[in-house]
Amino acid sequence: MRILITNDDGINAPGLEVMTAIATELAGPAGEVWTVAPAFEQSGVGHCISYTHPMLIAKLADRRYAAEGSPADCVLAGLHDVMKTCPPDLVLSGVNRGNNSAENTLYSGTIGGAMEAALQGLPAFALSQYMGPANFTEDNPFDAAAVHGAAVIRSVIEAMPNAGEDYRLFYNVNFPPVPAAGVKGVRVVRQGFRRGTCFGVEPHASPSGKRFLWIKGGDQRAETAPDTDAHANLDGYISVTPMRADLTAHDALDALRVIE
């Protein structure tokens, strides 16, 4: 198997090392793992692409490249330049430092990389590691993802339903904020919604008196519905959520037909 990996935390991020190990296990002795990752951190960029300006790309080592762009840019670079003559069988994005459950999914560059791969017709997974008191200060806070990542991906691939001919499926996988030994299992769930919390801004003044705004997230332990990703993660389970790039609110179509 030939695998392309990317992330949004940057080419030097510890989570990318974990993803490399996961991909190497999945690819097998005869397989190949290629990396095209952002030269700098691209957290929170979602599915953006560098449509109005070019991006610099540099080869750092055999099958390892850094691009000055978003995760979606990196997938495009991987498919249409770096691996143009040897396309991948699978694209993996992550492992992100922090969860991409609930509303975080919509902002995530990790998700954006997997989404772009799906739009390009390839099977893709986004992997993220929830952080919390039980794993944040551990020597390897990515332990749950490192130990269970390859097995979860294999299980999904074996059970993978028809991906669709238009907007293909991709998979959002979040590992709970516990060491690997504390993982209770896997739950296939929908995307959650953290009620009463959202992203906002926090103003600060520089020494020169200029005003700056920091973007800040909401409470990552806010309650979500029992059959959702964040709820499963906080209960010690790995969450797997099948997704598509189709943003249509299908449940609202019939109600709106009265305006036709």
UniProtKB/TrEMBL annotation:
Binds 1 divalent metal cation per subunit. This is 5'-nucleotidase SurE. Its main location: cytoplasm. The gene is surE. Its cofactor is a divalent metal cation. It is found in: Cytoplasm. It comes from Seohaeicola zhoushanensis. GO terms for molecular function: 3'-nucleotidase activity; 5'-nucleotidase activity; exopolyphosphatase activity; metal ion binding; nucleotide binding. It catalyses: a ribonucleoside 5'-phosphate + H2O = a ribonucleoside + phosphate. Gene3D superfamilies: Survival protein SurE-like phosphatase/nucleotidase. SUPFAM superfamilies: SurE-like.
